[in-house]
């Protein structure tokens, strides 16, 4: 499961209400008074806001029965959004004799439960509480006895209470999209989402990650629909009533949460890897670009299979795009599901590729599906590996700088989250299993694997992964089994590594200094993290030292809170680069002179060291010196360096930028990267020179939507008399970049006549695009009281109460607050708050005084 996109949006939405993330500060509590002596007690520091919480222990689920096989026959009532199902479950007691069976079955109507013996059915007694189905078996069965249960039921997913997380915004399992065909420009679809334990909302099962089953699925739908499920497509049979039944068979065992269906009118674009079927299911409008979106999949399959020494283990690999998905993507066995954002036209492909998320879900086919975490407490055994696959693929396909940029982005996501939350990666004490889907399990987990790879070396790392996969295939695992695979491969006891990185909270916060005196280099390292909640780390690292232009690398191992290392040198170093591989998960404060930083930028080589040097030089150099440096940096070979240079240039006073302006203009006109061209255009517009009107007009015609959107915003800032005329020519565009650029201008300068445009866009927008559009509409309402109409309020109220994405509901609530001085709006907001069930929103809404 990939959640990065949604977690970032969730953070942004939360900040809109809370005013941003608070800085971690340990405040002192008021001193207590000792009851006998009357003397002040020792002051006790309050725990930091990120301190790990002591929730109840969550073990893996006890296996009472073993679910061996599931056969499902399903059909649908689109109008009621029901699934009619007959489930045949083959089970046996796991170890101890049993005369009762308890199944997860959420929100069903149970019509009958029978024990089957061939075609003979024996009715069984049961108790059903809406969540658990408890069946009295006809006798006591031993672990040598198999039995077959048939359950006739109706699933009603829309009648379930909604839960979810930042990664998976809803958990009702089965979703009907545009079921009555009443929404224009939206296809009718049905799809499922099982993680964490939501598949039991559409079929009865033992909904636990430490269960494994084979399966058969008979899907009856109207003949115009295409179906997809796990495993192999066996046949399609036409029925007398005009429907068809598609039969899918999964002969290799997998966890119940990985069972999937997707139903819709799809173009199926065929590809292959070796002799394996690889298919891409997209809406017909994207048939021609499907291979440009997903076309690296066969190369990924080959790359990962060879790296791991374990060939892709399933009978096919399909990827399907669905509307209104509740996550970024999901790694269902042999059939991954993706959000609609992956569907791109030719122009959009100029600015975007989705290789990261595609690699992520594919790597799960090994880590998560072939070998599965035994409990949600061990989720990083799935997600950390999938996260790290993005780095591996980027490194292989796009090179070291792109991989380093990805690494920095992931590290930043974890460090941002660590300001308010620090938990062990493997954490048995959580309030809700959905809390596991965070930047710890993903971003931190991926960075920990990177450190492990650096420590043991590439050959040992991938040999260990091969051992882990081979020894644990088609089974469930906990973190000790990963550790033992590495120990058995390397011969080294790695408990110290797994303890501090997987089982303990936090990260090292280091302060580093170096001094050269009398021919000796002393490197001092302080571990400054709060060791009440975090360990003193053992950190094997490399330190690079440059003397007279030559680099020497030294291995050190930090084991103490305060430690000094004496490194051999012959002359005063030009640069000391701590953690020269830039692989440490943590923070490092290392003061350097401007000369050292310039040397680092020009000579250190790695992207992370280069970007860090540029950011520090902005603080150390005079404005004139910075301008001189940027003249070269703006021509750097790597796009992210040029982007950062544009940001730095944008923070300089306008009078200092005359020599940079021609360089920025050339970037705006001809940089190979659309994102960089767009950034240069925006910088020119911020500098306020109307002389670039022609450049903005040309940018508006650029093939890159990012550049065209920047051109729109740049031209809008010139206040040219034909602005409205030129912008109006883009109003039929559906691309999100263009729509949001127009919305930014129309919110302030469009006037009341743009009301209809805003209403149309809000009806068509989706996901994050709708979230940001609502921000602009809130500004539009504030400037144009005429926009306060029953139609607008009704739309916002509907979004705030019914939209399936929690952050869109939050944005609509926030937009309504623009007119919270009106009594009727206050009452509406109170009603929305009273009816909201999502705990994340309630926590924020309750902070708002109404």
From TrEMBL:
<keyword id="KW-0378">Hydrolase</keyword>
<dbReference type="GO" id="GO:0005737">
    <property type="term" value="C:cytoplasm"/>
</dbReference>
<keyword id="KW-0862">Zinc</keyword>
<dbReference type="GO" id="GO:0016285">
    <property type="term" value="F:alanyl aminopeptidase activity"/>
</dbReference>
<dbReference type="GO" id="GO:0006508">
    <property type="term" value="P:proteolysis"/>
</dbReference>
<dbReference type="InterPro" id="IPR045357">
    <property type="entry name" value="Aminopeptidase_N-like_N"/>
</dbReference>
<keyword id="KW-0479">Metal-binding</keyword>
<dbReference type="GO" id="GO:0016020">
    <property type="term" value="C:membrane"/>
</dbReference>
<keyword id="KW-0645">Protease</keyword>
<feature type="domain" description="Aminopeptidase N-like N-terminal">
    <location>
        <begin position="69"/>
        <end position="258"/>
    </location>
</feature>
<dbReference type="GO" id="GO:0005615">
    <property type="term" value="C:extracellular space"/>
</dbReference>
<dbReference type="InterPro" id="IPR014782">
    <property type="entry name" value="Peptidase_M1_dom"/>
</dbReference>
<dbReference type="GO" id="GO:0070006">
    <property type="term" value="F:metalloaminopeptidase activity"/>
</dbReference>
<feature type="domain" description="Peptidase M1 membrane alanine aminopeptidase">
    <location>
        <begin position="296"/>
        <end position="501"/>
    </location>
</feature>
<dbReference type="GO" id="GO:0042277">
    <property type="term" value="F:peptide binding"/>
</dbReference>
<dbReference type="InterPro" id="IPR042097">
    <property type="entry name" value="Aminopeptidase_N-like_N_sf"/>
</dbReference>
<dbReference type="InterPro" id="IPR011989">
    <property type="entry name" value="ARM-like"/>
</dbReference>
<dbReference type="GO" id="GO:0008270">
    <property type="term" value="F:zinc ion binding"/>
</dbReference>
<dbReference type="Pfam" id="PF01433">
    <property type="entry name" value="Peptidase_M1"/>
</dbReference>
<dbReference type="InterPro" id="IPR027268">
    <property type="entry name" value="Peptidase_M4/M1_CTD_sf"/>
</dbReference>
<dbReference type="InterPro" id="IPR050344">
    <property type="entry name" value="Peptidase_M1_aminopeptidases"/>
</dbReference>
<dbReference type="InterPro" id="IPR016024">
    <property type="entry name" value="ARM-type_fold"/>
</dbReference>
<dbReference type="InterPro" id="IPR001930">
    <property type="entry name" value="Peptidase_M1"/>
</dbReference>
<comment type="similarity">
    <text>Belongs to the peptidase M1 family.</text>
</comment>
<keyword id="KW-0031">Aminopeptidase</keyword>
<protein>
    <recommendedName>
        <fullName>Aminopeptidase N</fullName>
        <ecNumber>3.4.11.2</ecNumber>
    </recommendedName>
</protein>
<keyword id="KW-0482">Metalloprotease</keyword>
<dbReference type="Pfam" id="PF17900">
    <property type="entry name" value="Peptidase_M1_N"/>
</dbReference>
<dbReference type="GO" id="GO:0043171">
    <property type="term" value="P:peptide catabolic process"/>
</dbReference>
């Amino acid at each position: 499961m990939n959640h990065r996109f949604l977690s970032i949006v969730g953070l942004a939405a939360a900040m809109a209400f809370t005013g941003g993330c608070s800085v971690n500060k340990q405040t002192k509590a008021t001193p207590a008074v000792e009851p006998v002596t009357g003397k002040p007690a020792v002051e006790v520091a309050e725990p930091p806001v990120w301190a790990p919480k002591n929730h109840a222990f969550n073990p893996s689920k006890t296996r009472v029965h073993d679910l061996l096989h599931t056969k499902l026959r399903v059909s649908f009532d689109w109008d009621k959004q029901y699934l009619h199902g007959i489930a045949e479950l083959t089970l046996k007691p796991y170890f101890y004799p049993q005369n009762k069976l308890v199944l997860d079955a959420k929100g069903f109507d149970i019509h009958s439960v029978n024990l089957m013996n061939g075609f003979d059915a024996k009715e069984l007694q049961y108790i059903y509480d809406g969540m658990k189905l408890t069946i009295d078996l006809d006798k006591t069965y031993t672990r040598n006895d198999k039995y077959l249960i048939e359950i006739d039921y109706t699933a009603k997913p829309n009648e379930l209470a909604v839960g979810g997380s930042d990664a998976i915004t809803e958990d009702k399992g089965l979703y009907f999209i545009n079921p009555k065909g009443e929404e224009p420009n939206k296809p009718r679809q049905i799809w499922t989402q099982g993680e964490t334990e939501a598949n039991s909302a559409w079929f009865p099962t033992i909904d636990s990650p430490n269960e494994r089953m084979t399966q058969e699925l008979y899907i009856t739908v109207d003949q115009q629909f295409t179906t997809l499920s796990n495993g192999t497509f066996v046949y399609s049979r036409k029925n007398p009533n005009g429907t068809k039944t598609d039969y899918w068979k999964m002969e290799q065992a997998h966890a119940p949460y990985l069972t999937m269906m997707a139903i819709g009118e799809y173009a199926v674009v065929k590809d292959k890897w070796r002799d394996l079927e690889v298919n891409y299911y997209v809406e017909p409008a994207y048939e021609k670009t499907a291979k440009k979106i997903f076309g690296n999949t066969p190369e990924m399959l080959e790359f990962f299979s060879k790296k791991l020494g374990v060939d892709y283990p399933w009978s096919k690999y399909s990827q399907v795009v669905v509307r209104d998905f509740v996550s970024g993507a999901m790694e269902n066995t042999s059939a991954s599901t993706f959000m609609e954002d992956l569907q791109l036209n030719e122009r959009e492909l100029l600015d975007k590729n989705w290789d990261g998320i595609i690699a992520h879900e594919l790597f799960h086919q090994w880590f998560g599906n072939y070998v599965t975490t035994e409990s949600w407490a061990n989720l990083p055994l799935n997600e950390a590996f999938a996260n790290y696959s993005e780095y591996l693929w980027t490194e292989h396909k796009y090179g070291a700088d792109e991989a380093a940029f990805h690494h920095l982005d992931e590290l930043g996501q974890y460090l941002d989250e660590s300001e308010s939350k620090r938990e062990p990666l493997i954490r048995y004490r959580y309030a809700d299993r959905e809390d596991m889907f965070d930047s710890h399990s993903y971003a931190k987990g991926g960075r920990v694997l990177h450190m492990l790879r650096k420590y043991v070396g590439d050959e040992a790392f991938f040999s260990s992964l091969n051992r882990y996969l081979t020894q644990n295939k088609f089974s469930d695992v906990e973190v000790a089994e990963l550790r033992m695979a590495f120990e058995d491969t390397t011969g080294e006891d790695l408990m110290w590594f797994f303890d501090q990185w997987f089982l303990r909270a936090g990260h090292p916060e280091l302060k580093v200094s170096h001094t050269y005196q009398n021919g000796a280099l002393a490197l001092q390292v302080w571990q400054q993290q709060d060791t009440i909640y975090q360990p003193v780390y053992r950190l094997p690292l490399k330190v690079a030292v440059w003397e007279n232009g030559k680099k020497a690398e030294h291995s050190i191992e930090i084991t103490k809170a305060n430690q000094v290392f004496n490194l051999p040198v012959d002359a005063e170093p030009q640069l000391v680069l701590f953690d020269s591989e830039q692989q440490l998960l943590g923070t490092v404060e290392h003061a350097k002179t401007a000369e050292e930083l310039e040397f680092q930028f020009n000579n250190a080589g790695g992207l992370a060291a280069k970007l860090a040097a540029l950011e520090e030089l902005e603080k150390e150099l005079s404005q004139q010196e910075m301008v001189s440096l940027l003249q070269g940096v703006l021509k750097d070979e790597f796009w992210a360096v040029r982007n950062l240079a544009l940001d730095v240039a944008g923070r300089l006073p306008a009078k200092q930028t005359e020599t940079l302006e021609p360089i920025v203009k050339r970037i705006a006109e001809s940089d190979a990267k659309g994102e960089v061209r767009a950034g240069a255009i925006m910088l020119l517009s911020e500098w306020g020179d109307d002389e670039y009107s022609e450049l903005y007009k040309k940018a508006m015609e650029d093939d890159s939507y990012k550049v065209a959107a920047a051109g729109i915003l740049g031209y809008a800032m010139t206040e040219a008399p034909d602005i409205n005329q030129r912008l109006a020519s883009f109003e039929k565009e559906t691309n999100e970049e263009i729509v949001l650029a127009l919305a930014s201008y129309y919110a302030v300068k469009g006037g009341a006549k743009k009301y209809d445009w805003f209403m149309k866009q809000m009806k068509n927008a989706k996901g994050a695009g709708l979230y940001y559009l609502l921000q602009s509409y809130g500004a539009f309402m504030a400037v144009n009281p005429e926009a306060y109409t029953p139609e607008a309020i009704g739309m916002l109220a509907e979004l705030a109460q019914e939209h399936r994405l929690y952050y869109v509901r939050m944005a609509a609530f926030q937009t309504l607050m623009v007119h919270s001085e009106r009594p009727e709006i206050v009452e509406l907001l109170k009603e929305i708050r009273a009816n909201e069930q999502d705990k994340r929103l309630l926590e924020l809404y309750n902070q708002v005084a109404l």
